Amino acid sequence: MIRLCPGKISLKSPKLAGLLLMTIIVSLAYPAHGKDISEHHYASGSKMWTKVKQDYGYFYSPGRLTRLGIAFGVGGIMANTDLDENFREQFQKNFRSSGTDGISENAKLLGEGSYLVPLSLLAAGVGSLYSTNPEASVIGEWGRRSARAYLVGGPALLLMQVVTGGSRPGERDNASHWDPLNDSNGVSGHAFIGAIPFLSVGRMSESPFLRYFSYVASTAAGWSRINDDAHYASQVLLGWYMAWEAVSAVTESGKVDRNFQISPLVSDEWYGLKLSWSW
User: What's the sign of the alpha-carbon dihedral 90, 76, 215, 2?
Assistant: First the structure.
């Protein structure tokens, strides 16, 4: 519910507040007016599944797997020592309050897959239906990037949740410790889901302020899980980092089409091919 009063607007629905924040950021992230969207748009006519297959190639590249391995090594140290538990105790004792709980109520919704995944698909559909409209084209690209990141990173996330086998705070003794195949909370799904839309905005934006604001906002859903004592810090960091690598894979995959281009050249007297390479 939105309550309108003279001089102020009061948001009483955390769901509406969260989705409104996402809409505002996506709308502002790209200077669409007067700009050639094609330079930021994926190759026209390319099929979604072909793109996703290409994304997988980038996501499972040796370099990216090495970085993910390092990240899980750091997360494992945090989870299997006292670091996670000590951080949890300090945060809950010294930082959590009714004020942070109110913020967290909204931030958690930004990591709800039942909202964000359909939203990305809806945005992708709008972009396809109204591809000649600059604003719709930008929203569509954001939706496609986000949906593809969910597709490429989601299976790996689900696998690592089970492989690590970490539990939620308070569920058992040494709940942060990894216990492979015995639980499925070793990586935060909310941190992963909530980071991807904002990281996608950051990668698309040409404004440094909006780019870094989006990067900071990508941590909101994960932070809410720490505040609500629903995940340990290592679990949130791993969920966020998997989202970072998934979005990076999609971004790198999209650059392939723009780096090397072949186009026909035709005149009344001759014809040929134009080859261009950008970096």
Answer: negative
**Measured distance CA(222)–CA(225) in Å, rounded:** 5
pTM of the full structure: 0.80
Phi–psi pair at 180, nearest 5 degrees: -45, 135
Reported as a single tens digit per residue, the pLDDT across 227-256 is 999 999 999 999 999 999 999 999 998 775
Nearest-CA neighbor of 182 among 192, 172, 190?
172
In the Cβ-directed half-sphere of 184, how many Cα atoms lie within 13 Å?
6
Alpha-carbon span 157 to 241, nearest angstrom: 10
Distance between CA atoms of residues 13 and 3, nearest Å: 10
What residue has token string 């040929």?
272
Exposure of 21 in the CB half-sphere (CA atoms within 13 A): 23
Q: Can you read off the two tokens belonging to residue 192?
A: 């992963």
The rounded mean pLDDT for the chain is: 81
Please report where in the chains the tokens 């990141």 appear, as a residue.
149
Which tokens in the block code for residue 58? 């980038």
> Among residues 59, 110, 70, which one has the least CA distance to residue 237?
70
| Inter-residue contact 196 to 246 (CB < 8 Å) | yes
* Contact in structure between 194 and 222 (CB atoms under 8 Å): yes
* Segments of the chain assigned E as strands: 2-5, 8-11, 260-266, 271-277
Would you give the distance in Å from CA 201 to the centre of its chain?
9
**What are the φ/ψ torsions at residue 146 (nearest 5 degrees)?**
-65, -45
CA distances from residue 272 to 32, 265, 269, 278 in whole angstroms, order as listed: 33, 5, 11, 20
Q: With beta carbons less than 8 A apart as the criterion, state whether 113 and 152 touch.
A: no
